[in-house]
Amino acid sequence: MTENLVIVESPAKAKTIEKYLGKDFRVVSSFGHIRDLAKKNLGIDIKNNFSPEYEIPKEKAKVVAELRKAAAESKNVWIASDEDREGEAIAWHLVSVLKLNLPTTKRIVFHEITKDALEKAILNPRQVDMNLVNSQQARRILDRIVGFEISPVLWKKVQPALSAGRVQSVAVRLIVEREREIIAFKPESSFRINGIFRTDPDSTENNLIRAEAGKRFSDENDAARFLEVCSSSEFRVAGISVKPGTRSPAPPFTTSTLQQEAYRKLGFSVSQTMTVAQKLYEAGKITYMRTDSTNLSKLALAKSREVILSEFGEKYSRTRQFKTKSKGAQEAHEAIRPAYLNSLTITGSQNEKKLYELIWKRTIASQMADAEVERTTISIAMNNSPVIFSAAGEVIKFDGFLKVYTESTDYENGDEEKYILPSVKKGMLLHYVTISAFQKYTTPPPRYTEASLVKKLEELGIGRPSTYAPTISTIQNRGYVLKEDRPGEKRQLKIITLSKGTISTSSKTEAAGKEKAKLFPQDIGMIVNDFLLENFSEIVDYNFTAEVEEQFDEIAEGRLKWTGMLDKFYSAFHKTVTDTLEKKNRKTGIRILGVHPETGEQVSVKMGRFGPVAQIGDSAQEGKPRFASLNRNQLLETITLPEALNLFRLPRSLGIYEGDEMVVGTGKFGPYVRYRNKFYSLKKGVDDPYSVTVERAAAIIKEKGENDKKKVMKDFGEILLLNGRYGPYLSKDKKNYRLPKGIQADKLTKEDCIGIINESEKTKKRTD
DNA sequence: CAGTGAGCGAGCTTCCGCTTGACTT
């Protein structure tokens, strides 16, 4: 018999707490929620006051059995789940599943894991707060109702297996609306005038002043004319202003800001960041990684100060406590910080080291002094034009926190680099080195990255630290959005330069719209979004979550009845569901593009059974309509008649290579050449299926053949030993088998291979 | 790996938020 059993949510937390509590306490973990609404059906008896049907999921059965046993063996049970809505619900489910006594079960909470905090918590147990539990039940049931009533409407009216939800549908909406802004955007070009000046015309020293003219020119000829004016002008310093300023460090990391910075500084995806952070947490190297709090414990503040004093000195230290700003924050944990602030580095994988260092720097910097800067602006006047050039420079007088860490921004602009300006006096004569007019296009609003989407969702108070990464996976898994790179389109930029009295013109190419790992909406995402906006505008409203959150708060405070709140929501919502099912037509995103120039048949595009498709002819007319799939990166919304007609040119016969026909087409994985019943992919960004030549196609086929030969290390007839991306492996009957560790691939015999394959098949069956 | 788009219909799909492994490649 144990004297005391403490139940927490996370096993790593259980381990650390056990160390502090001593022999009389056994600490175990519930691994999060132990019960949920029934998986099948709605799991809610709506007519019976929204009575929930809870069940223990299969994968939780073992944990629950162990918890039951532990509880039975203990005199006192202490429930120490997190101090928020979800944590309180976990506590209540534990009480009912473990058949504990609600009024006497000791509910305790703590925000930092120190001996002091734990002892204080143990001395102040309370009861499970049923108001807070009920606010969680309302949240859970509302989400289930929204998801499980709208999704089937989509299956009927749009396509099977789609989904909608309070969080995911807003995430998709953000991406779709941004894309439409980009589609509607018309870039405009203008010429900016940049001059490089120096004080002494003969000096070769690097004390240059880079200044921009206060006027831009939309017309190239006007820009050139201005440079002519410049060539005969005198330039003098018209004014100098020096202003002191300060810069302050960013708060310590929350889940959302960690995901953003790890993406910007380390190139991690949102889910990669969470996997690496989980490893660090389990190893006891950082505090909990799913948090919305920027709070640091007193201990962490003191330790940070100690580290800063010894590393950088007194004047670099400034203890700060940050207030959490984000909407709906529940602050059950600390900010994400190193568990031991005096460890600057750790052992572990490269990614673990990198992420840890980022967390260390951010935490330490947040406790350091402001940086002091001096911003200097020099204005330069001309004697034959009212245009003023101005140069901005920044000098860091005291680096403060910048010694350790600078926060990145999403869209870093090289143009805004700060220079140190040489010292000049008012009225001083300046000499230009070059003055250039650079053509520049305005850019559309940026597409979302995973990280910037998380940032936006957090600002709207939608989603929680534990769901940002899964939500991003969901909207990609459903096919609503796709994360991809785009090469962009080449665009010429003109540069007109005045140098030593003569004007010359040159040009530079840029890839307009080049994108890396951005979220692009897909047709099905746009169709579903529009359908939801038309029929369920309340649910996809950016304020919906904030509004229901207010009501959940009222429930938590005991000012609102949870069943009443749900009833009010449901009666209006359910009517919308039935009305939509009854009255609305299927939504296919159909667009009539026009008529075929030769046959006069109708040409249209729509979402077909297997994806977006262009169609010539109408099933109402005679003859079967013809179909062609749209290419990736074409949208139903923007495709034109000629582009649609062009799709019907494929597949086409290309010609003969060594006696057999080559056919070019475009399939699920992009453009290909088919030759002797085998597919050869055309090179992305290099080959175009409409214009690829016979010679080029033959070269692709030949090259692939040679590569395949290189791949084969040994050929045992039906079994092949192949060299793959991850090293050698076996292939038989189109199935691949991994080699056991430590085997020398080049010494394998056919018998060895058969043995490996049989062994692998056996273990596979066991796990089935 | 890639090509498809007649029509019918059984049975399936689906939410958010709290936690980790157990999987395969």
Put the structure in a nutshell:
By secondary structure, this protein is of the alpha+beta class.
Question: What does this protein look like?
Answer:
This protein is of the alpha+beta class. The radius of gyration is 33 Å and the shape is globular. It binds one DNA strand of 25 nucleotides through strand 3, helix 3, helix 5, helix 13 and strand 24.
Task: Label the structural class.
Answer: alpha+beta
Number of helices: 20
What is the count of β-strands? 30
Spatial order of the strands in the main sheet? 9-10-13-12-11-14
Spatial extent as radius of gyration: 33 Å
Q: How many strands, what sense, and barrel or not for the largest sheet? A: 6 strands, antiparallel, barrel
Low-confidence stretches: none
The proportion of strand residues reads 25-35%
User: Mean pLDDT, nearest integer?
Assistant: 92
End-to-end distance: 39 Å
Anisotropy-based shape? globular
The helix content is 25-40%
SSE order and pairing:
Elements: E1 2-8, H1 11-21, E2 25-29, E3 36-37, E4 44-45, E5 51-52, E6 54-55, H2 61-72, E7 74-79, H3 85-97, E8 106-107, H4 115-123, H5 130-157, H6 168-184, E9 189-198, E10 209-213, H7 220-231, E11 235-247, H8 255-266, H9 270-282, H10 298-311, H11 350-366, E12 371-382, E13 388-398, E14 429-441, H12 450-459, H13 468-477, E15 481-486, E16 489-499, E17 502-512, E18 515-521, H14 523-535, H15 537-540, H16 544-556, H17 562-583, E19 591-595, E20 602-608, E21 611-616, E22 626-629, H18 641-647, E23 652-657, E24 660-667, E25 670-675, E26 678-681, H19 694-711, E27 712-716, E28 719-724, E29 727-732, E30 735-738, H20 750-767
Parallel strand pairs: 1-2, 1-7, 7-8
Antiparallel strand pairs: 3-6, 4-5, 9-10, 9-14, 10-13, 11-12, 11-14, 12-13, 14-16, 15-18, 16-17, 19-20, 20-21, 21-22, 23-24, 24-25, 25-26, 27-28, 28-29, 29-30
Helix pairs in contact: 3-5, 5-16, 5-17, 6-13, 6-14, 8-9, 8-11, 8-12, 9-11
The structure holds one DNA strand of 25 nucleotides.
